[in-house]
Design brief:
alpha+beta; Type 1 dockerin domain; two-stranded antiparallel ribbon; 18% strand
Length: 87
Amino acid sequence: MIGGILTFFSNDPVNSQISVDVTGAGVIILGDTRADFDGNDLVDSTDFLGFAGAFGTSDTVYDIDASGVVDFTDFLIFAGSFGRPLS
């Protein structure tokens, strides 16, 4: 949980500012560890370059869903994990 005060300023001589209390929370959605091909705990551009090179092949390293071919389904899993933390 994080919170703070958001203050708006205006040139209105009667109401030159107004403050609002703001509170929020977030949820971290973890990436799929199978998409971290180089093992650096981040699904990043290095992983993408390897994946792109293997696309359309039967390379088991990049065949995330184990369907026998590196295809669009694997890409969707990979793209959903891109840039996300793994733990």
